[in-house]
Amino acid sequence: MTSTSDKLTVRVWRGAADGEFRAYDVPRLPSQTVLDVVTHIQRAIDPNLSYRFACRVGMCGSCAMSVNGVARWTCRTHVDKVVDGNGELELGPLRNLPVIKDLVCDMRSFFDKWASARGYFHPTRNRTDDLERISPTSRARKRADAGVECIGCGVCYSSCDVVSWRPDYLGPAALNRAWTLINDVRDGGRAERIAAVAGDSGCHACHTHISCTERCPKGISPTASIAGLKRATALAALKGEL
Amino acid sequence: MNAGRDTYLWLAQRISAMILGIFVLAHLITILYVMRDNLSAADILSRTQGNVALMLFYGLFVLAVSVHAPIGLRAVLAEWFGLAGKAVDWSLLVLALMLAAWGFRAVWGVFVA
What we know:
heterodimer, A: alpha+beta, Ubiquitin-like (UB roll), Fumarate Reductase Iron-sulfur Protein, Chain B, domain 2, 2 domains, 5-stranded mixed β-sheet, 10 helices, 15% strand, B: mainly alpha, 3 helical TM bundles of succinate and fumarate reductases, 85% helix, 0% strand, elongated
């Protein structure tokens, strides 16, 4: 990798809820990711900067931040794609989550809502039973597969206006997870999950703005999952199951 | 959160929206069409009085508005002003009844001779 003489001006949020953007000059390199930029600042300029990362290859979902106002996974975001016309970057913590320090958010409410949406598998068999045979081409499995690759990065949650308007709204990721489980024929928690995701804090609060789908780095459509939940909960209500 | 009630409210709003989507269009087209020749109030009343089909059309229109508007307002109050709860729900139920009463009164007013 050869370095260029170009410099990148990066404004980074410093502090918690009360804080300010501080500017840093970072050398511009070919194939440089936003996470590379943050790592350079911490290792070469300001070791006090706090941020999260783990895998660096788009699997763990821990490095999401606001890049020029848009939530993104920073390890797979090339600087070339997001730098503005003046050669500047603005990096901040994810929206809709409390800021702990600098680029680090408190993710508890995000993951607690997965639990509230019954976003966990409810087994119906034990280790002595045969394996469930599931056709990969079945309608339910295709629906589950469409949403199952979520890495829990929080980009959708941060991009969702309804989350900012309704603090108790479960959010796109939790509802997407619930939809994948509702379509998992091995799962036994359907009735409780349908009840958990219906209502003003659940799928019915979604305005179909599609920001979550637009921003999801994994190409998942939580909007489609939420639409599925709306249909499933409406049917359950009409059958008197809610 | 009341999952069953909220889901029924959502369904009611979606169904009323479907009705309104068609009815508002029919209403606007009718107004634009019949007003080409500057109809007088008396001309209009002569067409509406005793017209059962028109009464049923606007009766359903009023019903859809009475259902749709308060539920939409409920979301606006919750999301823009953080107002939610029993007091808000009861107030909106009163609003729904008032909309229905005013609307049906108007429909009846142009129906009876």
